[in-house]
Design brief:
Elements (H helix, E strand, L loop, with lengths): L1 H7 L1 H7 L3 H19 L5 H41 L1
């Protein structure tokens, strides 16, 4: 669901991932891309694509860091159990 949100409304996906400042800068990039896409400029579509790609990477890294944090916590618990047991 977050990946779909990252494609449709990239700043919101970044904001929901907990990255407030990145969401603000992504919103500026995204809005500029949309405005330039509406106007007859070709620059708008790549800017919008960069905003969406940025949001996809943030959402993916959020899931990866949560996975890494869980693995480290499990390893620390096993280490504590070996020392006491």
């Amino acid at each position: 669901m977050m990946y779909l949100l990252a494609l449709v409304v990239p700043p919101l996906a970044i904001l929901l991932s907990g990255r407030v400042f990145q969401a603000v800068f992504n919103a500026l990039l995204w809005v500029l891309g949309l405005v330039l896409t509406i106007l007859p400029f070709l620059v708008g579509l790549p800017l919008w694509g960069m905003a969406a790609l940025w949001a996809l990477l943030v959402v993916h890294n959020r899931k990866q860091s949560a996975r890494d944090r869980r693995l480290v916590d499990d390893a620390l618990q096993r280490d504590r159990a070996q020392r006491t047991g």
